[in-house]
Amino acid sequence: MLDGEVASAFCGKERLCRKIKKMDIIAPLLTIAGFDPSSGAGITADLQVFAAHRRFGTACITALTVQSTQGVEAVHAVPVQELEHTLECLQKDLPPSGIKIGMLADEGIVRAVAAYLRKLQPRPIVVLDTVLRSSSGAYLLQPSALEAFQNMLLPQVDWITPNWLELETLAEMSVTDRSTAIQAADALGERYPSLNMVVTGGAERPPHDYVRPAHGQPFWLPGEHIETRATHGTGCAFSSSFLCELAAGKSATTASAAAKHYVAQAMQQAHVRGSGHGPMHLLWPMTTAY
Ligand code: PLP
To answer: In angstroms, what is the span from residue 128 Cα to ligand 1's centroid?
Structure first.
């Protein structure tokens, strides 16, 4: 996809944020996220998304969850020292050219990830999927970690991808329709002036996303409802795909549309598995569903 020496990556519609070199494309993308044993969400899903975009991925586990397509039954955060050690070890040998952050579980993990990002000079592009609760309602970030999440992490990432419920919590405003979603995103944007956002509306009808670059024109990304039970980990897949596209030098407009298309196809092409919300077919660009 990138044959030339250098490509340009745009954070907003027009604004040039950084140059991307060929080496950046060969360097791994890192996912810092939870482990979902049913493989619909979390790091195993993120690595499939990276592979589907022909990117090599490394992973730092933040938490072990016990879950299936029927929901999350338990969450066990990884000891902070292990997480710090993993990030340090990977950074020395396999520094990433892009980072996706997902489930963070508790305050200790939030602080450790924020400290890791602070040390990166220059910092690669970071997409934070603001995972707060699973669709079955389990806390994937303890409420006591929210303050550190907002104060220490949000100012250090390039993009966040909240759904309506997450936007509500972060903006402390009720989000009930598209106009209140815009108001809440604007309020959050005032608090974090350099934060770019994609407010995902996958659970809404129609499932339009609202893309709000920090510098540039916001716009609605249209979606069509897909009738399927293969919806587990849609947020994880969108944010990982979006990172792949941005890290390859795509503009926010192109990257968000490509990521939305990728997730829609992954839902559409999936075999339905399990009795609840099943996994998608994340490797669809490479193979038919298996
Ligand atoms: N488990 C892990 C490890 C996750 O990272 C996530 C979402 O990011 C989920 C579960 C929740 O997935 P869903 O929202 O599809 O329930």
So the answer is: 14
